[in-house]
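Example 134.
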Amino acid sequence: MDWVALRAEASSAATRAYAPYSRLHVGAAGLTDTGRVVAGCNVENASYGLTLCAECGLVSALHAGGGSRLVAVSIVAGDGRPLAPCGRCRQLLFEAGGERLLVDGGEGAEPVALSTLLPGAFGPREVDARRGTS
Ligand code: THU
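Predicted structure in complex with tetrahydrodeoxyuridine:
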């Protein structure tokens, strides 16, 4: 896994962030199990609650480009160093990559599995298994 290259893609996406309110530029890049690289950046709104995180853009790009599963992601701020994904985005990443999805830990640090960042996750399996009968 070329984390340096994936991080560079995330950094490049961060340069295209639209974040005039927080001024925190975020980029996310992911590698699929078919070898495709997809990326996204955060997009803010004057109505602050409508902000789209970088990971949202990444997941949209994943599906718009044909789908498949994420196997590795790097999420960075404008300084190029990894940023902890927010709670909502951990859930989005879980849907797109599952518990074994590897998340960049940064230079000199080990990547972490998504199961560490989102233990006991709710996912598609629960929807299937617990769908109501009444
Ligand atoms: N942000 C992301 O893009 N991803 C995250 O996982 C954390 C937060 C963005 C949203 C907002 O534009 C800015 O960072 C400050 O919260």
